[in-house]
Task: inverse folding
């Protein structure tokens, strides 16, 4: 850029302005020495300006860094192309920061009038941004690590049903690689017989958005098959849109195998014990009876509910047989089987000769601790000795088989008599219950007093009393274990088969907790923790159902005033922090019986039940507005936003959730139209106002086709020649029903509806067509809305207007406001450069009213800056406004930018502006906006 004055002209004014810029700025000469550093740059380096002027990067930074900076500076000076890169540098506060350096070349007039290239370098601290990026990456890795450590296989699917994530356990179990499993690749490892059923279940759930549950066989990495229980829940966004599914799969192979084994074991034991035609008795080592099967009870006339402890050898046998009995018991104690014959009295007091086989029942160490005896009636036996021998062998085999079964079964087994004494424990039971031989014969509830009133005790008593089996699961606090229990009645008490299911129950509890967390996430806002739109709607429907006819329900819809500006100025992290603080304050204001929710963005809602007729929801609305309008501390900044509230009451304003929410939204629209920071309760006429607004939208859509739009032109006057140097095109709407509609009444509607794009194209074409007939020295200025920059055809529209009118592109000036640079600045800067390439001029309108207008002058080389009328109103007496005007005029001259002042209405204002050296002025002192026919006459007259 060529500048007509040397770099040091107005140096103090420029330095004063640039020192106020928060971003560090450095100007270097062609030798890469510092000519100027603003205050922010000096603070960053930690040295005063006098000590840095004339030095270079080699005096400040390590040789490697300085060499890299110098090479890039030379490339920018040589090519004229700006560059940008990041460096890790230790600043004056001894903190290593990530700095983004933006470099561009400018050209100024040297002392002898020769062009002198300079390099301007701006510095932006992006340390926090990079740190947040790293935190996000770490967060993603942390969440994946959590999923990979879960005891279940976790998966996630998108809205199309494609699986987008599998935890490590799935991949290890199946042997699949992640890329093989994603999408629908997981179906390949499902058993062919189960595949279609599973696919239909998942596809149906994905279509209906309902939870899915399936059991199927999954091929393990070693080729074996595992039974899997797979449960999935749908996921929804804050706005209610469907996101897909999250689910978990659990290996239940062991549980299914255990259930099968337990059933087979119980059936086998029952088959041997109860169906035997022989009398089978289980005794302790001293011969005291513990259990007896049905054949034995029938033989001795013992009822099913009577105990067998009293039926000892001596009570039913001949005393003469006592030595043989004692010898047999002694053999059992020594671990040997024995066979003998005795005489007993049956139920009819008839003597019977019994062939008895006894065998030891050993414990886990192989030591006998119970006696199994099988009795066969041989009183009437006439069979040959071979048949008798066969019978004895069968009896011995049956005894050995039952003894082996009891100790080899996977279950723990315990027999309890009717007095609740423990009469039998197999090895698994002793190990699991942590008991030894002393427990045999002891009272069960003396061994486990903490379980005396628990589910185990209640269930076992019911089995004993009702003679019906029971299956249940219970937690034993004394052992800190979960048991799966099957208790069955016997003639002498109950038999209890049980196994340890602690790991399975805890896995199920973990899964249920995860499902509860997922369900909570689906119904609550992730950012604030408040109920989301889905949960709010459910609460609303429930409240209406309970309250209609007995009480009134108020719904308050609110949103924040100025929230978008916070996001655009301070970034989305600041906006998120603000929303969290808003939700906290909202929770303090509403009552515990109220429901507060975040509906999305900066929209919130509250449901309140009005207990008394005199209770006014407006009181709550005002408390909300007051609470949310207090300043917020976000990082080091203090932010202030407002709130607007719309109120609707059931049943006065509606009887359904849809009717009430719509009424509250209409009231909210009315509150915002009234100036924001207030509340409005719904009134029927508000609907009419909203309808009128909608009708205005429809009328505006037809305005272009009906040629109701007109262009007025307000001149810009050169303060040097006193001639019209250009005209600003201003659109007007002459509506047949409403008359002349002011721009402030329809331009916002045009931007809201997107009509500003076709209207803007029409203004460009019409303004260029009119201006083509003016003198070549008179330019035409057209305002562009930020909405037009979102249209991909903007550059083509400008080019088409120039081509159709034949006007010199240099005569067309496009005026933008700083909101264009606030919104998608990188994209809009590219569009501005494309417009500049057409040959048109670019002007910044309303200069000085934004947050960082000076920063925008560094972002893009504007041709003109127009000072907002707010700085002109109090001239010539306003000292602050005068100081700002002086600074802007000096900045414009230094950078070679045309300076224009808007809103000049008095001679005193004109004299002040002229004295400060501004190039142009515009205002009612010269002329109001005029139709095209009148502005042509004014230009021809040559003087305002």
Result:
């Amino acid at each position: 850029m060529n500048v007509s004055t040397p770099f040091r002209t107005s140096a103090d004014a420029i330095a004063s302005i640039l020192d106020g810029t928060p971003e560090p700025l450095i100007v270097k000469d062609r030798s890469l020495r510092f000519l100027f550093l603003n205050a922010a740059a000096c603070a960053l380096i930690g040295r005063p300006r006098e000590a840095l002027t004339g030095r270079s990067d080699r005096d400040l930074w390590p040789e490697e860094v300085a060499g890299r900076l110098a090479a890039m500076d030379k490339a920018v000076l040589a090519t004229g192309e700006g560059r940008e890169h990041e460096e890790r540098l230790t600043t004056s506060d001894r903190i290593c920061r990530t700095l983004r350096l933006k470099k561009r070349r400018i050209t100024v007039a040297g002392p002898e009038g020769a062009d002198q290239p300079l390099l301007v370098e701006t510095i932006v601290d992006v340390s926090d941004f990079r740190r947040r990026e790293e935190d996000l990456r770490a967060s993603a890795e942390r969440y994946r690590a959590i999923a990979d450590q879960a005891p279940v296989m976790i998966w996630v699917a998108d809205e199309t049903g494609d699986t987008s994530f599998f935890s490590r356990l799935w991949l290890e179990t199946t042997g699949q690689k992640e890329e093989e499993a994603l999408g629908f690749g997981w179906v390949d490892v499902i058993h062919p017989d189960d595949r279609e059923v599973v696919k239909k279940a998942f596809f149906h759930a994905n279509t209906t958005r309902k939870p899915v549950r399936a059991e199927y066989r999954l091929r393990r990495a070693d080729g074996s098959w595992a039974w899997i229980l797979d449960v999935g829940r749908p996921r929804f966004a804050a706005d209610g849109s469907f996101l897909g599914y999250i689910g978990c799969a659990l290996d239940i192979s062991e549980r299914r195998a255990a259930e099968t084994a337990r059933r087979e074991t119980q059936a086998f034991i029952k088959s041997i014990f109860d169906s035997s035609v022989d009398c089978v008795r289980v005794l302790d080592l001293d011969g005291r009876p513990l259990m007896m099967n049905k054949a034995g009870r029938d033989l001795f006339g013992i009822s099913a509910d009577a105990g067998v402890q009293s039926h000892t050898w001596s009570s039913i046998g001949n005393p003469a047989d006592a030595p043989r009995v004692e010898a047999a018991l002694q053999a059992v104690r020594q671990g040997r089987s024995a066979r003998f014959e005795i005489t007993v009295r049956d139920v009819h007091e008839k003597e019977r000769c019994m062939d008895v086989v006894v065998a030891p029942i050993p414990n886990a160490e192989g030591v006998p601790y119970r006696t199994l005896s099988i009795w066969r009636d041989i009183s009437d036996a006439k069979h040959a000795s071979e048949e008798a021998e066969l019978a004895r062998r069968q009896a011995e085999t049956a005894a050995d088989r039952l003894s082996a079964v009891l100790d080899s079964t996977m279950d723990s087994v315990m027999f309890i008599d009717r007095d609740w004494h423990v009469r039998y424990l197999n090895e698994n039971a002793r190990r699991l219950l942590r008991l030894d031989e002393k427990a045999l014969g002891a009272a069960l509830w003396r061994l486990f007093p903490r379980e005396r009133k628990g589910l185990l005790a209640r269930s076992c008593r019911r089995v004993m009393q009702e003679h019906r089996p029971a299956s249940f699961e219970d937690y034993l606090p004394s052992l800190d274990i979960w048991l799966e229990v099957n208790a069955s009645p016997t003639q002498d008490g109950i038999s209890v088969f049980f196994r340890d299911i602690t790991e399975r129950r805890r896995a199920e509890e973990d899964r249920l907790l995860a499902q509860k967390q997922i369900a909570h996430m689906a119904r609550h806002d992730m950012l604030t923790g408040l109920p989301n739109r889905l949960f709010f709607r459910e609460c609303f429907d429930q409240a209406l159902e309970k309250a209609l006819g007995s009480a009134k329900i108020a719904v308050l819809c609110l949103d924040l005033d100025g929230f978008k500006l916070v996001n655009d100025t301070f970034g989305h992290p600041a906006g998120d922090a603000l929303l969290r603080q808003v939700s906290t304050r909202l929770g303090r204001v509403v009552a515990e019986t109220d429901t507060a929710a975040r509906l999305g963005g900066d929209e919130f809602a509250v449901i309140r039940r009005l207990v008394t007729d005199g209770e006014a929801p407006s009181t709550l609305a005002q408390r909300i507005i007051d609470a949310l309008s207090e300043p917020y501390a976000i990082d080091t900044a203090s932010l202030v936003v407002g709130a607007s509230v719309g109120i609707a009451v059931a049943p006065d304003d509606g009887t359904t959730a849809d009717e009430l929410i719509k009424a509250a939204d209409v009231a909210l629209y009315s509150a915002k139209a009234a100036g924001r920071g207030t509340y409005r309760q719904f009134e029927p006429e508000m609907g009419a106002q909203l309808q009128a607004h909608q009708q205005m939208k429809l009328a505006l859509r037809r305005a272009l086709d009906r040629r109701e739009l007109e262009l007025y032109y307000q001149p810009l006057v050169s303060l040097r020649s006193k001639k019209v140097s250009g005209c600003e095109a201003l659109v007007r709407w002459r509506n047949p029903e409403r008359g002349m509609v002011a721009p402030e009444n329809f331009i916002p509607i045009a931007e809201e509806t997107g009509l500003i794009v076709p209207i803007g194209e029409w203004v460009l074409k019409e303004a260029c067509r009119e201006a083509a007939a003016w003198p070549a020295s008179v330019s035409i200025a057209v305002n562009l809305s930020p909405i037009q920059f979102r249209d991909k055809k903007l550059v083509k529209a400008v080019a088409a207007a120039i081509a159709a009118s034949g006007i010199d592109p240099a005569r067309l000036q496009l005026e933008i406001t700083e909101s264009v640079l606030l919104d998608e600045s990188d994209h809009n800067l590219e569009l501005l450069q494309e417009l500049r390439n057409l040959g048109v001029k670019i002007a910044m309108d309303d200069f000085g009213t934004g947050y960082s207008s000076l920063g925008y002058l560094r972002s893009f080389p504007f041709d003109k800056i127009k000072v907002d009328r707010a700085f002109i109103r109090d001239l010539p007496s306003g000292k602050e406004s005068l100081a700002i005007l002086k600074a802007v005029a000096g900045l414009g001259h230094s950078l070679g930018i045309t300076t224009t002042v808007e809103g000049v209405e008095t001679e005193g204002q004109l004299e002040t502006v002229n004295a400060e050296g501004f190039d142009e002025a515009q205002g009612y002192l010269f002329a109001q906006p005029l139709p095209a026919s009148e502005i042509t006459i004014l230009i021809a007259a040559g003087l305002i």
Observations:
- The domain at 524-682 is CATH 3.30.70.270 (Alpha-Beta Plaits).
- Residues 1-9, 382-386 have pLDDT under 50 and may be disordered.
- The chain is about 40% helix and 25% strand.
